[in-house]
Amino acid sequence: MTDWKDNLPEAAKTYLDGRRLDEVECVISDLPGIARGKAVPASKFAKQDYFHLPDSIFYQTITGDWGEAAGDDGFIEKDMILKPDMSTATAAPWTGDWTLQVIHDAYDRDGEAIPYSPRNVLKRVVQLYRDQGWEPIVAPEMEFFLVARNVDPAKEIEPMMGRSGRPAAARQAYSMTAVDEFGPVIDDIYDFAEHQGFEIDGITQEGGAGQLEINLLHGDPVKLADEVFYFKRLIREAALRHDCFATFMAKPIEDEPGSAMHIHHSILDIETGQNIFVGPQCGETDAFYHFIAGLQNHLPSGLAVMAPYVNSYRRYVKDHAAPINLEWARDNRTTGIRVPLSGPAARRVENRIAGMDCNPYLGIAVSLACGYLGLTEQLRPRRQFYGDAYEGEGDIPQVLGQALDMFDGAKALHEVLGPEFARVFSIVKRAEYEEFLQVISPWEREHLLLNV
């Protein structure tokens, strides 16, 4: 009988070569993107085909409270069946023993996919493309900050101390000297990524103080979402080794740029393998324009998923490297939709709206869903934009409450993502938003206490 470890990905086999596997972390992403699951001894994992977790993990808010999940028959906390996807098995190299992580998929007792599990939502959208004869390809870019340890929520977040002994400086985009300041953290990020079998396309200094960007190679949307899910944990662990925090908040520091998860998209024809954005004479096809139109028409309704917290909307500020509208242009980073410079075969469309605080499965799923609606509706986008898009008006929701209202009314988008997912997501996000509205901020105490 074949040992299950013989079917591991090559990177996991290399990591364990000559060593005894101690533990397996069986994980699944909840709605915020937090890894939930169980750690089990390797000997037990070898004997189990699945394990159980309650479906209530998908009703839990970022603060640990619960959305009001009751339907017509009330809320019954049911056990899900979680089955491993062994293609996702990868090292957890920061642990003290030899540990693997394995992402699981969620099913009900009838073997049906749980519709509000984020990985299942993305799989649903990808399958809709494949049903049309298309293969979606994405490439995410991850922005994040390395900051000083912060254990007091009342204290402002500060940049981390670099190896020079000075705080990380802002306005140093693409500076190699700035990158060198974080050298020890970056070395661990590279080492962890190599152990896990992930290929980094590049690391650059961004415009914020202590802000970095990691680019990943393009590929299958589910595989890339898995990597972003893993990378968030990897980067946090690397930072902790050097007495600092890694944060993926959309806007952690006042007057600094926010952190985005830019998503590049192209679509291949499954039968021919050709990019459907490229015509016979290397020109731009109707499908190219339909995809852009889908982003323009439907991203405002999907913004609550790509910008899921009240902090997310602090990022959309003029002249702070984040878009305020959904104009599209070629090689123009002021617009929400950008067509990068490339040869015809690599023609792609970049969504610059999504924040790094979103769940990677859901952020990619919504972006692809909007493009899918554009391809099937076959509408044309607005005319290409020229100039500085920050000089125009914003056309995306400005606060989470407005974004949730738009999401709740987006029935076409719900059909692509799954109506049951849309229902549960709205329940959880409204619970978070209502909890936030009960908190009195320092700004209110400073300016309203004695003046109104």
UniProtKB/TrEMBL annotation:
Protein name: Gamma-glutamylputrescine synthetase PuuA
High-level lineage: Bacteria, Pseudomonadati, Pseudomonadota, Alphaproteobacteria, Rhodobacterales
Family annotation (SUPFAM superfamilies): Glutamine synthetase, N-terminal domain, Glutamine synthetase/guanido kinase
Domain of life: Bacteria
Broad enzyme group: ligase
GO molecular function, one term: glutamate-putrescine ligase activity
PROSITE patterns, per the entry: GLNA_ATP (PS00181), GS_CATALYTIC (PS51987)
Assigned EC number: 6.3.1.11
Keywords: Ligase, Magnesium
Required cofactor(s): Mg(2+)
Record domain GS catalytic: where: 118-452
Gene Ontology biological-process annotations: glutamine biosynthetic process; polyamine catabolic process
Transmembrane feature ranges: none
Family note: Belongs to the glutamine synthetase family.
Keyword Ligase included in the entry's annotation: yes
